[in-house]
Automatic annotation (TrEMBL):
One of its GO terms (biological process) is carbohydrate metabolic process. InterPro entries: ConA-like_dom_sf. Pfam families: Laminin_G_3. This is Concanavalin A-like lectin/glucanases superfamily protein. Keywords: Lectin, Signal. Residues 1-20 form the signal peptide. SUPFAM superfamilies: Concanavalin A-like lectins/glucanases.
Amino acid sequence: MKKNKSILLLSSVLASAFFASCEDSIDKVNSPIPYESIGGYENSDEVAAAHLVSKFSFDGNIADSKNSITDGSATNVTYGTGIKGEAYQGSASSFISYNTVANSVVNLKSISVSMWIKTDPHTGGAQSLFMLPKKTDFWGNIFTLIEGTGPATTMLLKNHIQKDVTPSIPWSGQFIEHGGANVLPNMFGSWKHVVWTYNGTSSTYSIYIDGQKLDIPASISKRYASDPATGGGPYGELANSEVSKFIIGGYQQHLGAPWGNPDGWMLHYTGLMDEFRIYDAALTDNEVVALYKLEKDKR
């Protein structure tokens, strides 16, 4: 009997050791596998993290996770499936107005704007993706518009940035326009990652679609007050002023007084928008590619 008990005890010990060994093996097999870094980053928020001043993910809310653009009010805004979580779903009457804009956005000297958009061709005017208004300027400080012109496969995109030619002469009412030979192809019907940058030190503008930097003429990429060959000087750093609000999906004219009713061509953005970001620096090629790939990978 003692011998049998010893055998049973030994069997129990061996079985326990066997199962413990198996559990260790299972734990090792099922342990999380680290993501492969992209461009040296593990997730999208690591990209140029020190320069990220505003970020809207639109995961069921309109909050800026950096708390630079706050006190928002949404009009007829709903949410759809985004590139990463949920996304802002626009309509013919949708927009968001934010009452408080921090100095980190107001005092931008250089800028990068990054967003995912999914939209269809439209007619009748220009849809506003976003706007940083100016109290005494019809056009505002900074904004991006999609014109409703051109073939159904192309997008005529306009970016406006407020700059100073001299300390006392503001530059406004001018656009960086992707039209004519520089119209953006194949932009409708699917998610597209759009990044545009302006470097205030070098006065250079760049635009990227799905991580690819577009080859644009020097007349677009290099921003001068006049022809440098005849003594013209560069525009230099951004010079936002009299900032009143921040708007996504509409124009400041949609806010009413003091502007009254918007003109008929001023259209709300009707598509989807996701992962909207503003940086206080011009992102590098590597940073843009990494941001595109990481967000596409939902990281």
